[in-house]
Each structure stands twice: as structure tokens, then as C-alpha cells.
Write the C-alpha cells for this entry.
Amino acid sequence: MIDDIPPLRDVISKYGLDAKKSLGQNFLLDFNIIQKIALTSGPLDGITVIEIGPGPGGLTRALLAGGAKRVIAIERDERCLPALAEIGDCYPDMLEVVHGDALEIDCAQYCDGPTRIIANLPYNVATPLLTGWLTGENWPPFYSAMSLMFQKEVAERIVAKPGDKAYGRLAVLAGWRTDAQIAFNLDPQNFTPAPKVMSSVVTFTPKSSPLPARVKSLETITKAAFGQRRKMLRQSLKSLGGATLLERAGIAGTRRAEELDIEEFVNLANEWDAMAKSKSGPRFLSNIYGGKKPSDTKELYRDWANSYDQEVEGENDYAQPRRCAEALSTVLDDRAGHILDIGCGTGLSGLALREAGFAAIDGCDFSNEMLEVASAKSVYQRLFFADLNQPPIDASNEQYDGATAVGVFAFDHISPDALDEILRILKPGAPLVIGLNEKFYDKGTLEEKFNQLELAGIVRILSREIGDHLPVAGIKGWTITLRKSA
Ligand SMILES: C[S@@+](CC[C@H](N)C(=O)[O-])C[C@H]1O[C@@H](n2cnc3c(N)ncnc32)[C@H](O)[C@@H]1O
């Protein structure tokens, strides 16, 4: 007995806390193991601990009994709150339970003196949470150590070294800024319900001075390089400057992503930034906000295709693809659904869809040069030419389970009337997410078309959200989610 609260099994049955698969829950009940996790990064005296997904509170109790100064427990599942409140009563003023989604909460706000993150992470959000903690703007970060439990396969990806099969973006990010090690492994039978796979506890100690690089650039480089890990770098990094970039970083274009060490990735990120700063290539962004004839739009993208990713994503932190992919994932549960990325351009919007978990993505665009760059990213199942202003496009009626149109409803791009054609190829009840810059939205023609379609009962607007579009350029944008009527 470490406290006056009933054993975990009793707590679980008292509050009816059967683990929910949809929340990635697997509860650990063996107190010896739970205590071992609590103390993996050393004694807890004087430490504030942030715990994600406490569930019935087993680890929470071990942290408090182990001497933590304070525990902030972030839990999304409402059913667990009464059990956690009971623990709070036993440790007055030492436990703060935050009811919410950890992906939407900035944990840094709870930092209070030396702070650790210790958690048996809900497995369905483990990787995005870790990525968030590794890619903060400020370094050293708000935490002095992390002890986190993952599925073993994810843990292996975190600690992998160049040449390992599991080596990829996660290993580069983790190894760049922290010393990450697998502390111990756990058999499935330690959990309720028993998962199919082994789990591992990984400890992370932040490095005080990692090799200097801009996080965003390192992410862009690793995303492109590992997106096609079997291709030579001169091919996978083509849209980021290809041979020129590799030559500047002193790396042979015939090498592959999985062979590069962290220092080499850092060099690539820094050289990529230096190329962008020297602004050697032509600039296009300022040309797309009006004043052009539609016929010029095609020429613009023809000339822009090879430097689009660098200018839009690299220099301006293009936010809209991720926003749209996340919006689609909140309204479309079926990650295997067939999605069309309309006006896919070089594939940044498709990459974001893949990162959000979608697997069957087609793309179409009216610029063959943009389509060629997209094809090199190997994200799309099918890529095809389509001018949305000249319907019909080459897709059958009610073919798709969902669609995105990111950055394509704009001045002299796709006109609002193209919505009729997009709705033709969507299944009844299928969602469509449109991401567009506020300048075009303010014109009102798209909103007029929405109103017509909504009045006729053809679609329903589910949400409209303003947020970042091209944050560095200070341009905001709308992410609008519609559903075709059933
Ligand atoms: C700003 S880019 C967006 C590309 C991609 N969705 C992204 O978010 O990075 C706009 C894309 O729309 C395409 N486009 C413009 N007008 C079009 C039309 N009438 N039909 C099909 N594609 C069009 C362009 O070729 C270009 O690739």
C-alpha cells in the first residue's frame, strides 16, 4: 500500500473505466512496474511532473507517493475524472487535473521549477506529442527530462542510428536535441487490456547546446529526404534545391537519407536557409495575389514548380495544408477512405494528408510541372491533369469519400462555380475541406456560392475557422469544412 486509496483494479471497476481503444488506452496495473516508470529519470523530490493520460491514476499515485512536488495530470476521458479527484483528496494541493486534449494544450505553462514529463502515453497520440515537445522554438525546453512509454516499435524509431531500418525523422529530431535511450521493455501482459505488441520506456535528457539549426528547416529537409527513403538524395531533395543544396552541404547526391547522420541533416537545413536568404532564385509569392490573367496562372506555376516548396513552406511556414488535413481528419474517421486533393500542386497538401493518417490519396492539378514535382514525393496513388474551370474532370460520379482544395480558390485560380464539379465526384455525405487566403475569401464570391448551395440543400457548412495561412508573410487564411448532403 502506498496510499489510502483502494487498489487500481477496484478503482477501475468502481468507476466503470474499461479502457477505450479510440483513446489509445491501455492501463498498467502492476504497482512495482508503475513505480519503476515514475523513478526512471531519478528521484522526484522537488520535481513538478506533467503526466499525460493518467487514466485511473496508477502512475499519478506512484509519482505523488514518490515525492513529486506537484503533478499536473492531463486527461481527455471524462470518465476518469472522479477517480483522479479521489487521488487529489489524498494529496491536497499537490495534484492538478486538467481535463482536455493534450495535443491542444501547451504543457510549458505548467512548468514550475525543475519539471519532467512522465507518462504512459495514449498510443494514438504518442508520436505527435513527442514531436511537439522536441520541436519547440525555445531550447533548452521547459522540461529537464522526459520518461515516456511507447509501443516498442516507436521507441526503436526514436533511438535508431544511421543505417538502422528504423532510422528516420523521429530519430533525427530526438537525437539532435536530446540524449534518448530505451530504459526497459514491458510485455503486453502487464497491461489491461493486453496490447498486441511490446512497450518500452524511453528517457530523454535535453542537450544543453544541440547543433544550431532552425527547427522548421530541419523538419522540412527530413520530411523530404525520408519521404522517399530509398531514392538518392539528389532526387528526394529536388524540390528543395537538389544538387545545388547537396553540393553546398558537401554531401554526395547519390547517398540516401538513411545513411546521413544528424550533423549532415543539420548542415543541409542550414545551407537550405542560407540559399533562401540569398534569395538567388526568382520570387513568386507576391505575384499570386491579384492582377494576373487566368492564362498567366498556368505560366506562373510552370515557372514556380521547382522553387515552390522552398518559398512557400521553407520561408513562409505554410500552415494551411496541415490545418486542412486536421480539419478533414476530425470529420472523416475512415483513414482508408479515398481522398482527392484538388489543385495538389507540388504535393505539400498531400503530404499533410498522409501525416494525418490518410493512405488512399489522389491528386489533380492543371499544371503539369507542379504535377511532376508532386509525383516525385510518392504520396499520391493517382495523379492526373484536371482544369477545374473546364469540367468535367477525369473522375467518376460519387467516386471520393472526401476531398481537399488547399490554396486553390484564389484570384485567377479555381472559380467558386467549380464547387458544382467537385460535388459531382464526392459521395453523398462526404466532406470537403477548403483552405484559402483571407484576401480571396474577403471578396465574397465563394461565400455567395456556399449560400446558394446551402439554400438548395446540396451542402451543409460544418465550420469556418480563421488562422495562419502563410504566417511569416503575415497572411491569414480560412479553413472551411462542408459536407455534401446525403
Ligand atoms: C497555391 S497552389 C496550392 C498547391 C497545393 N494544394 C498546396 O497547398 O501547396 C495552387 C495550385 O492550384 C492549381 N490550379 C490553379 N488553377 C487551377 C485550375 N483551374 N484547375 C486545376 N488546378 C488549378 C495550380 O496549378 C497550383 O498547383
Remarks:
- Residues 297, 301, 321, 343-345, 348-349, 365-367, 370, 386-389, 406-408, 413-414 surround S-adenosylmethionine (CB under 6 Å).
